[in-house]
Amino acid sequence: MAGHITDKGITELGVGLISVGWMGKLHSRAYQAVPVVYPELNIRPRLVHAADTAPDRVEYARNVLGYAKGTTDYRDVLADPEVDVVSICAPNLLHREIGVAAAEAGKSFWIEKPVGRDAVDTAAVAAAAAAAGVTTSIGYNYRHAPAVERIRELIANGELGRITNVRAVFFNGYASEPNGALSWRFKKDLAGSGALGDLLSHVVDLMQYVVGPISDVNGLLSTVHRQRPILPMGQATHFAVIEDGELGEVENDDYAAALVRFAADSPAAGAVGTLEASRVIVGPQCGLGFEVYGTEGSASWNFEQMNELKLALGRTGPNQGYTTILGNASQGEYAAFQPGPGNSLGYDDLKVVEAKKFLVAVTGGEQRNSTIEEALADAEVIAAAAASAVDGQWHHVPTVPGATFGHRRETVGSNA
Predict the structure, then answer these.
(1) Averaged pLDDT, 249-273
(2) Neighbouring C-beta atoms of residue 343, cutoff 10 Å
(3) Cα 74 from chain centroid?
(4) Which of 25, 266, 348, 384 is deepest in the core (most CB within 10 A)?
(5) How much is the average pLDDT of 159-185?
(6) CATH code for residues 145-335+370-396
(7) Where are the chain's structural domains?
(8) Residue 281: predicted pLDDT
(9) Which residues 6+ apart lie within 8 Å of 391 measured at CB?
């Protein structure tokens, strides 16, 4: 078991951070919140060593976030004997290199999605993690929303009947401005795919976690804004707007869609669905949502109203249609944050849940965290969609051993 147990029975875990951007800050705050939100775990993360190529971010990690040490070389973090677990929040192109290096250093790691630019990158990280026997966790934070966990439980318990079809989208306007900067996210060698890997991967993960494994895919890709003003690496963010700048080519997709079939041996055997994602849409701000339809009922959720779910049960009777259910203690990890129903959780809270699940797994507890095997299964769906977008054919998704999405390795609905 990782970490050090104090004389008070508290497990202390030394944390390393690689890349001190927005997500790195969020991981750090999540680690710090775990003992406050989950005191019963007796787990206390300690911020030990942070790395970033920008010296000012290293100083921020030390002086503001509270890391004891800082460096401009991520290898220093991996070599630090005081570091038990590592958060990898670097850009996509570095995920394979750093993920493999973390595994080879024997460090369990929490890595942001997508784990690599494509399924090949992700498979390399998965192989290294398996060889080293380290615990992994992936940044698919939306699956931790209490309403999402409740819908998953309803499906697993058969309360919606046989699942017939799903519709899921991630419509985000972060790149809707044509003068939005040509950041690394728009370059194939740096990001891999565009909306397909960045946004549709969240949709795919949600559907495989909530409904069941996807077996077959037919994909479609489109690029809407084919040129953008150039932004040097490491300056500002992909939200930056540049007027009258030098233009460069957008190399990946702005919009992605897929028709999907769910596996014959899954809880949703025979079900079909449509998945969509866009990074240039005007209107939705963070429009991630899904609808699941069954023979006995249906349920829907979207992130912009994260603390609500809509539920319809039964085909007949006087109360047909959806009922809106507010967040409450029966839903996932809600009770750890709020004492009564109707209070709201936020994006940051989902990262606290993610940190909790990762640290519980690292210390030998229940494995409810997203794993590298599940990330590879998501990447295989994305790869099948990309291949289908080229040839227009249906593509079968290879099965990834160990990618259970919790359907077989836990008791659904457990809040442990």
Answers:
(1) 94
(2) 13
(3) 22
(4) 384
(5) 94
(6) 3.30.360.10
(7) 4-141, 145-335+370-396
(8) 96
(9) none
